């Protein structure tokens, strides 16, 4: 075996091992992100009660803005890291929660509700976002705890076989493609809504700028 072949084999082994370690780390860390995102989202009533007790207006504004930034940043970070569930080769070859892609879709639906409606002012929008987050977290927690992390438990062998992506590849890929189609539809809806909002603002600005001209012409 030539030295170049040895160097290539070592490089490939390190690359593959590093990729597997990174994927396993992301999958193991995502439950913490889901939990923190749920805690911050469900902790909104506590934050509001705390704001009412705050006598300093500046302190209340800083507390509220910090809460919003942390809550929404965690949701975006969780969605970004969950994108590994839409990689077919990773889904088929790695031990991932089989419903991870569906959980990511529900997370995106919660983000879509936050982007399209005033969740912090509309109680119905807040409840809808809460339902999406709870369902998504459940779809991630169950297979992660009872299949991916319980692979060494003989009593859970059936659940491990059914709810792990690399042991049930067909179902995992079908769920991935269906969820990806849902993600595309939600993205199209958000893009259309943003485009309509921009057009409305542009028309309002044009009307506002032409109004003084009409008044001066009438005078």
Task: Offer a few descriptive terms.
8 helices, mainly alpha, 219 residues
Write up this protein.
With 219 residues, the chain is an all-alpha fold. The protein has one domain (3-218). Helices cover 83% and strands 0% of the residues. The protein has 8 helices and no strands. The chain has helices at residues 3-42, 44-53, 57-81, 88-93, 100-116, 123-148, 157-163, 169-218. α3 (57-81) runs antiparallel to α5 (100-116), α5 packs antiparallel against α6 and α6 crosses α7 (157-163). The chain is globular and about 75 Å long. The chain starts with a helix and ends with a helix. The relative contact order is 0.10.
The secondary-structure class comes to mainly alpha
Radius of gyration: 24 Å
Kindly report the oligomeric state of this protein.
single chain
Number of helical stretches of at least 4 residues: 8
> What characteristic shape results from the CA principal axes?
globular
Mean pLDDT: 83
State the gist of this model.
By secondary structure, the chain is mainly alpha-helical. The chain is built from eight helices and no strands.
Detail the topology: elements first, then pairings.
Blueprint: H1 3-42, H2 44-53, H3 57-81, H4 88-93, H5 100-116, H6 123-148, H7 157-163, H8 169-218
Helix pairs in contact: 1-3, 1-6, 2-3, 3-5, 5-6, 5-8, 6-7
């Amino acid at each position: 075996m030539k030295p170049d072949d040895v160097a290539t084999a070592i490089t490939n082994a390190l690359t593959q091992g590093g990729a597997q370690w990174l994927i396993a780390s992301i999958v193991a860390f995502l439950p913490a992100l889901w939990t923190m995102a749920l805690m911050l989202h469900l902790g909104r009533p506590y934050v509001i009660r705390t704001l009412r007790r705050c006598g300093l207006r500046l302190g209340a504004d800083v507390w509220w803005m910090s809460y919003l930034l942390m809550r929404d940043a965690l949701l975006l970070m969780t969605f970004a890291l969950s994108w590994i569930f839409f990689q077919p080769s990773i889904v088929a070859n790695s031990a991932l929660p089989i419903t991870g892609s569906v959980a990511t879709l529900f997370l995106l639906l919660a983000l879509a509700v936050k982007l399209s409606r005033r969740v912090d002012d509309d109680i119905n929008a807040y409840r809808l976002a809460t339902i999406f987050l709870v369902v998504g977290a459940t779809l991630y927690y169950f297979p992660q705890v009872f299949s991916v992390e319980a692979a060494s438990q003989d009593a859970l062998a059936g659940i491990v076989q059914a709810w792990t992506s690399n042991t049930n590849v067909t179902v995992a890929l079908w769920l991935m493609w269906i969820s990806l189609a849902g993600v595309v539809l939600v993205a199209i809806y958000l893009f259309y809504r943003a485009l309509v909002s921009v057009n409305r603002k542009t028309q309002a600005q044009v009307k506002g700028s032409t109004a003084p001209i009409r008044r001066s012409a009438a005078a």
